[in-house]
Design a protein that fits this description.
alpha+beta; six-stranded mixed β-sheet; 28% helix; two-stranded antiparallel sheet
């Protein structure tokens, strides 16, 4: 209404809800959100036409683990993605409202001193199934600048109360920002 046009909706897992994804769809925005490894079920259609209802952790265990690929131009990270469907219906009593989404699983590559743990991966969800994995991460990394702005506005302008003392408390934003600035 104010004349501000956007193409993407970027959010952390806190806002990766079915209601918010429905709003992004209704407003023709491409959502790119980090999502939780919770009980949300995604419908995966297999090559034989059958479907499975799996959580992000189950998708990781059965379809991602040991299938990692390097991200184009970003040798410190590996990724793997799946196109699945998510039912946006708020409850089991409402009519189904399936939407195709792309889940992007990402992990950093450990150096020779450390091994990545079994929980050292993140999952992102986008409604832009056509987007390249590297593009999804580059766009999502733009959130770091927004987080820094809010931190500085709170600190220097006295807006609201800060919830953290250091920039490093939002390390996953900082790490994703590094993806776009690595040589």
């Amino acid at each position: 209404n104010a004349g501000i046009e956007a193409e993407y909706f970027l959010a952390d897992a806190w806002f990766a809800t079915k209601q918010v994804l429905t709003l992004t769809q209704d407003h023709a925005l491409t959502a790119i959100v980090r999502t939780k490894k919770n009980k949300t079920k995604y419908r995966l259609t297999l090559a034989d036409g059958s479907t499975q209802m799996l959580t992000a952790v189950e998708l990781y265990q059965h379809h991602i683990k040991k299938q990692w690929r390097h991200i184009k131009g970003r040798q410190a990270y590996q990724a793997q993605s799946l196109v699945v469907e998510l039912n946006l219906a708020p409850t089991g009593h409402d009519a189904d409202r399936w939407m195709k989404v792309k889940l992007l699983f990402v992990r950093g590559i450990a150096d020779e001193k450390s091994q990545p743990g079994k929980h050292d991966w993140a999952v992102f969800l986008t409604t832009g199934c056509h987007l390249e994995d590297s593009t999804i991460l580059e766009i999502y990394a733009l959130r770091w600048g927004i987080e820094v702005y809010f931190k500085e506005a709170k600190q220097h302008l006295g807006l609201l109360k800060e919830q953290s003392i250091h920039y490093s408390s939002n390390s996953h934003y900082r790490n994703l920002a590094e993806i776009t600035t690595e040589p």
